[in-house]
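WARN  no MSA supplied for this record, continuing single-sequence
INFO  ligand: calcium ion
INFO  echoing inputs
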Amino acid sequence: MQNPDIARLFDEVADLLEIQDANPFRVRAYRNAARTIRDYPEPLADLVHEGTKPLTEIPGIGDDLAEKITEIVTTGELSLHKQLAKKLPAGLLDLLRIPGLGPKRVKLLHKKLKVKSAADLAKALDAGKVQKLKGFGPKMEEKLRAGLGQAQVTERRMLLNEAETQADATVAYLEAGGGIDRIAVAGSYRRRRETIGDLDILVTADASAAVMDRFTQYAEVAEIISKGDTRATVKLRGGLQVDLRAVEPAAYGAALQYFTGSKAHNVELRKIAQEQGYKLNEYGLFKGTRRIAGRTEEEIYAKLGLDWMPPELREARGEIALAREHHLPHLVELRDIRGDLQMHTAATDGKATIDEMAHAARELGYEYIAITDHSKRVTMARGLDPKRLRAQWRALDEWNGASEGFTILKSIELDILESGKLDLPDDVLAEADYVVATVHYGLNQTEKELTRRLVGAAEHPLVDAIGHPTGRLLGKREPYPLDFEALTQACVDTGCLLELNGHPERMDLPDTLAAAARRHGARFVLSTDSHQPGNLSFMKYAVDLARRAGLEAGDILNTRPLAEFSKALKRARP
Ligand code: DGT
Ligand code: CA
Ligand code: CA
Ligand code: ZN
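INFO  complex generated
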């Protein structure tokens, strides 16, 4: 059991409890535990098996949760989860995957309309019953209709960081068996999409049948879907499907290219090959029946007159034309990043102290960070009022005075209120080093209202950046309605930055919007929205996102040394 699998079980327990009207504190305890476990840097299964450190030393994990984690790791199941699930119709949990439906609404649909499945919900919608329920209305009805369609066509996708945990563990397991020459995870995973449908693993091996045997014996496998001598497909316990293919070394590059995709990129590429009198498939590039390339991706692209393209760009969004003209962008890399511009501490909804966050950031080689706790409107997180914020800033002045070679910027995640006003007065904002403004409330306003709020914030002289600009939460909440072009224009005009938030649940801005903003001349910052030191490693996902958007280091302000970064901020403009 990997950490994400344990976390998912706890999340589902929280959902089940909430649908069954359990004590809200109990629900919260499971949700918090799920989050902690998902972000925990070491596999909990190792802790359980090796017994080096008691689980209860993990913040937020008491005796009861520790016992449940041990049960999950040792038996692969959680009896509480089973008991709770037994009390409800099986289809009810599926409803939670529909955007807009949380446990509260699912509970109402179940109680009032006897909805037990997606099919029931579709019927209730058609009968016009749903919009009469309290808290639903015609707008929600429309959203559910759209969500229902989506949920039916697209199966559940896994967040990139969870898929990465599974990919790393699976590859390590396969390699430990020996006999593998080359191994790569291709597909959307290699393209670093923010969600992953399934994993596509390629190997070269002398005895491929033995590799397939080992693969299907992997302890994390819940179901073997198919198995042959050169190919097998399994489903892991967490629900993720994994394809494993063995190929000959002479075709490895061709297979890697083909299975990396995207499909749209491959279709374009195959057309180019045909135009030049070649045939391209997963076995190689062929002239008649003779294979003229296939060992590496580079030689295939080169034979077609193209530069090698980073997988992140292979979405048929113009990268092939750029590769032909030798004009591919020089994509930003993780090592270009010198600071992290969004994180929370225990002063609001984070888990660690300023010192712990700073220490961890320093270990990563950063030169600076911004502490961006919430402002007061976010009461759920005990957001900071001017008095508490100024006290924090005094502490930061002291910290900075006592340290060398590392700076903590005085900052705030400033709420843009429903009215469009900012949550803190200008005299406070003027004392900050960096301000990132975000929207958390009034998300059901119209596009016009939301656009006015965000554009207004971008135009404010003391707002340096717009954080998680679309507000999407992957698999949970759709972006709010927004005229993104108007926001981009305001950012370009005023020098306001757009944040690429690399928290795996956000990945916001989405890559296509970030690419569009770049074409308009916008500038960006990368951040993790960390709530504990372990989250700071999410920066790699922010970089993934930036690369998919075609961003270079020069487009991103926190690739610059502190003095240059600060000078380039809007607030430094004369
Ligand atoms: P996913 O798994 O939904 O996150 O996305 P992918 O891109 O990993 O898609 P997947 O697993 O269905 O297929 C892996 C790659 O194999 C895909 O990116 C391109 C290639 N591929 C699959 N089907 C086709 C096809 O019909 N035509 C072409 N040209 N390539 C295909
Ligand atoms: Ca895939
Ligand atoms: Ca696949
Ligand atoms: Zn936020």
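The mean pLDDT is 94.
INFO  checksum written, moving to next record
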